[in-house]
């Protein structure tokens, strides 16, 4: 393939706006069709962003100019839409999580392999300059040998701002499966596969209320734990502690720390594409009168900051160059396996070993330019 990749988007919810803004600005891809369960919404998005074709999902899947389908539907339909795209001979980029269960997700990856098409899975924040700067720093040995990690995501819940929040508290979501992919994809990309997890979960309220948009005031059911705490063990031997909560009065997002033998690396929020990366030096031996204030050394960020859609762009260039893309379906499946195991552990109280694994996740070249025309 030497021409820009033809992209079709299915699902025009909140997240579609940033995808459309970015993908229509990259020279190496062309957004040629937009589809939605409500075709009128797809029409509005197509007109807003200058996309030539619109309709329902079938209109995107049957469009001969679509080489890759971007699946932005709700989690419950990710596998269905992705599988239909594969059957139509299209590559797929899917929002997270890649699926809701192991069996159907493994089947999707097998179908794609048999059809000779690729699966890519969000989050693509791991391609952003913020994360990649931290990844290079660890590879260069700035903190020595990574030993343990700590992550935290705490919020009062997306029901306070999202106009359609019910799906975020349904099976396939909750803080574990909605926000967990950002944190665990980042950690697996840095430290390698996770070998086992132990978790505990709670659901303090079984019903919540919509607070914004046309349905404000309506109530909906909370189907999954709204706070989950996870202990993880990595195949390489490191351990991790992780808090994910939609119940916290204290808003604290994006805590991700890698603690090593020679210092600590504080990373940007894994739900963003940029942010502060800092190295914290050890205090060393403390003597009377010595300062206990630790020095934070900022690491200069390298690369162009964009946003969601980088994973699609990387797939387009990888397909053209016949090289592996970075945010693969296999990475998405391993992270899903970890999160489902944490969910099962929270329900049973048992430590669970992770059956899946994944290979090393490549580094994005420092000179990666989303706005360069490299195809066609």
Task: Describe this entry's structure for a reader.
There is one protein chain. With 376 residues, this protein is α/β, with parallel strands linked by helices. The chain has two domains: 5-121, NAD(P)-binding Rossmann-like Domain (Rossmann fold, 3-Layer(aba) Sandwich), CATH 3.40.50; 128-298, 2-Layer Sandwich (Dihydrodipicolinate Reductase, domain 2). It has nine helices and 17 strands. The strands form three sheets. The protein has a nine-stranded mixed sheet, with helices on one face. Strands 3-2-1-4-5-6 form a six-stranded parallel sheet, sandwiched between helices. It has a two-stranded antiparallel ribbon with strand order 9-10. It is globular. It starts with a strand and ends in a 23-residue tail after the last strand.
Short synopsis of the structure:
Keywords: NAD, Oxidoreductase. The protein is of the alpha/beta class.
Question: Keywords for this structure?
Answer:
376 residues; six-stranded parallel β-sheet; nine-stranded mixed β-sheet; Rossmann fold; Dihydrodipicolinate Reductase, domain 2; alpha/beta; 29% helix; 17 strands; globular; single chain; 2 domains
Percent helix, as a range, is 25-40%
* Poorly predicted tracts of residues: none
Q: CATH topology of the largest domain, anyone?
A: Dihydrodipicolinate Reductase, domain 2
Query: If strands are numbered along the chain, what order do they take across the biggest sheet?
Result: 16-15-14-13-7-12-11-8-17
Question: How many discrete domains?
Answer: 2
Shape: globular
**Run of helices and strands:** EHEHEHEHEHEHEHEEEEEEEEEHHE
What is the residue-averaged pLDDT? 95
Which class do the helix and strand fractions yield?
Answer: alpha/beta
Main beta-sheet strand count, sense and barrel state: 9 strands, mixed
Count of discrete alpha- or pi-helical segments spanning 4 or more residues: 9
Protein name: Oxidoreductase
Domain Gfo/Idh/MocA-like oxidoreductase N-terminal: 6-119
InterPro entries: Gfo/Idh/MocA-like_OxRdtase_N, Gfo/Idh/MocA_oxidrdct_glycsds, GFO_IDH_MocA-like_dom, NAD(P)-bd_dom_sf
Keywords: NAD, Oxidoreductase
């Amino acid at each position: 393939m030497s021409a820009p990749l033809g992209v079709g988007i299915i699902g025009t919810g909140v997240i579609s706006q940033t995808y459309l803004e970015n993908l229509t600005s990259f020279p190496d891809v062309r957004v040629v069709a937009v589809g939605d369960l409500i075709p009128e919404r797809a029409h509005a998005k197509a007109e807003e962003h200058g996309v030539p074709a619109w309709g329902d999902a079938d209109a995107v899947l049957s469009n001969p100019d679509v080489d890759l389908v971007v699946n932005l539907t709700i989690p419950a339909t990710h596998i269905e839409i992705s599988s239909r795209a594969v059957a139509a001979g299209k590559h797929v980029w899917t929002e997270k999580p890649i699926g809701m269960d192991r069996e159907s997700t493994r089947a999707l990856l097998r179908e794609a392999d048999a059809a000779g098409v690729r699966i890519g899975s969000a989050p693509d924040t791991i391609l952003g300059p913020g994360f990649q700067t931290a990844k290079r720093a660890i590879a260069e040995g700035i903190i020595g040998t990574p030993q343990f990690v700590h992550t935290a995501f705490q919020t009062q819940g997306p029901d306070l701002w999202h106009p359609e929040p019910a799906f975020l508290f349904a099976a396939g979501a909750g803080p574990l499966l909605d926000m967990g992919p950002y944190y665990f994809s980042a950690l697996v990309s840095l430290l390698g596969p996770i070998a086992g997890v132990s978790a505990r979960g709670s659901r303090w309220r079984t019903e919540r209320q919509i607070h914004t948009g046309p349905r404000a005031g309506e109530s909906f059911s909370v189907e999954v734990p709204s706070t989950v705490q996870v202990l993880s063990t990595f195949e390489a031997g490191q351990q991790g502690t992780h808090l994910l909560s939609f119940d916290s009065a204290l808003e604290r997002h994006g805590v991700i720390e890698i603690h090593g033998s020679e210092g600590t690396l504080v990373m940007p929020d894994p739900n963003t594409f940029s942010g502060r990366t800092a190295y914290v030096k050890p205090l060393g031996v403390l003597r009377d009168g010595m300062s206990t204030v630790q020095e934070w050394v900022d690491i200069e960020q390298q690369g162009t900051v964009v946003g969601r859609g980088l994973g699609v762009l990387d797939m387009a260039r990888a397909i053209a160059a016949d090289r592996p893309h970075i945010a693969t379906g296999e990475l998405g499946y391993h992270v899903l396996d970890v999160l489902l195991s944490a969910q099962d552990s929270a329900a049973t109280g048992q430590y669970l070993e992770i059956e899946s694994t994944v290979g090393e996740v490549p580094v994005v070249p420092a000179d990666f330019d989303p706005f360069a025309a490299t195809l066609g």
